[in-house]
Amino acid sequence: EVQLVESGGGSVQPGESLKLSCAASGFSFSSFGMSWARQAPGKELEWVASISATGANRAYSDSVRARFTISRDNANNILYLQLNNLAPEDTALYYCAKASGAFASKSGTRAGHGTQVTVSS
After folding, report:
1. What is d(CA 69, CA 59) in angstroms, rounded to the nearest whole number?
2. Residue 49: per-residue pLDDT
3. Which residues contact 89 (CB under 8 A, 6 or more apart)?
């Protein structure tokens, strides 16, 4: 059974940083691409970033490029998302997702409860 446990969210002020983690189990983590998505209140789920199985390829949405960094630790089955220079519009519930293959896919299967990021002054 695929399990994904997100953590690291919190309440911060604009301009501050957070690092989100996603602990994966139940599948061969190093064989699959992974992604992060977020959902703000009253809005649809929005793809944020993806990374290939090896970590060699990464992709970002225009809204977070140059501020967020996706990375992974295949030895410990953990996916990360470093969030820098946070803005109020980044406020959302952040989810990690497992791709169906090794590529840095924008789509994936979510299996966790997400971690809340709130940015306000």
Report:
1. 9
2. 98
3. 40, 63, 119
